[in-house]
Design brief:
Elements: H1 2-18, E1 21-26, H2 45-57, E2 60-65, H3 68-76, E3 82-86, H4 90-95, E4 96-98, E5 104-106, E6 109-113, E7 132-135, H5 142-146, E8 152-154, H6 159-168, E9 174-177, H7 180-189, E10 196-200, E11 206-213, H8 216-235, H9 238-246
Parallel strand pairs: 1-2, 1-3, 7-8, 7-9
Antiparallel strand pairs: 3-11, 4-11, 5-11, 6-9, 6-10
């Protein structure tokens, strides 16, 4: 009996040692990461997936809200265990480790008024003479960089949401948005669902993946994430749940 008790205590201790509270930095990217009244308890598709993965690996998550640039800085300095979700650009791949698992595919877009004649984006001339809004320090996908698309930049919090309001008032002609799903989410939240069209970028969609520090711990965390993610995907319908968040069902 004492032997069994000893083995049980050893097992509990080993399990406790292997489990970890992960410090995960995040920035708001609706509907993937959505603010709540508590910065340590965000919600959204990406949050749901992370929490389900952590449950299967036996870990817990301490969510840390911060601006996008600071997430990168803190991860580089090894003050975070990981970040919620990033598009793996070549520059980021040089500095960080990404999972093989894809949380979602995201499509950049130009949002315009429904009465705008623009229905398809094929070359930079389609945006000629249009005032396209975006925010300072925002990440721009390759097609817009390669074609030297100029933006009317604004600063401050909730910049993209404020630009949607300006678009509704026709103070800008269009707004660049990193993902169609985010534009749709915020348009619905502002009761602008029927005012806009969402024009896909000629390039994309792009994978959204967890990002970790480029060290042994980061490599292990990415490996652990990948080991259980396929099982999580079988239990969680990403496309369906994303639509539910966009439509305000949660």
């Amino acid at each position: 009996m004492k032997v069994y008790l000893f083995l049980w205590l050893v097992l509990v201790n080993v399990t406790g040692l292997s489990a970890k509270e992960l410090k995960i930095g995040y920035f708001l990217t609706t509907p993937h990461v959505i603010a709540t009244g508590d910065d340590h308890h965000p919600r959204g598709v990406v949050i749901d997936l992370w929490e389900k993965v952590a449950k299967k690996t036996g870990d817990s998550i301490f969510w840390m809200k911060m601006p996008l640039a600071r997430v990168i800085k803190e991860l580089e300095a090894n003050r975070l265990d990981g970040s919620s979700a990033f598009i793996p650009t070549p520059t980021r791949r040089e500095k960080f480790i990404f999972t093989a698992s894809i949380l979602d595919m995201v499509q950049p877009a130009i949002v315009v008024h429904k009465e705008n004649k623009l229905n398809k984006l094929t070359n930079k001339d389609d945006l000629k003479d249009l005032v396209v809004g975006y925010f300072i320090s925002g990440v721009v996908t390759p097609w817009f960089k390669q074609n030297n698309i100029e933006f009317e930049l604004i600063a401050g919090s909730n910049a993209l949401v404020r630009l949607l309001v300006q678009l509704s008032l026709k103070r800008v002609d269009a707004v660049y948005w990193p993902t169609i799903s985010a534009a749709r989410y915020d348009a619905r939240r502002l009761s602008f669902e029927n005012k806009f069209k969402y024009i896909k970028s000629p390039m994309g969609p792009y994978p959204l993946k967890p990002m970790f520090s480029k060290n042994k711990i980061g490599k292990k965390l990415a490996k652990d994430f990948d080991a259980v993610f396929n099982e999580v995907k079988e239990e969680y319908n990403i496309a369906r749940e994303k639509e539910r968040y966009i439509n305000g069902e949660y």
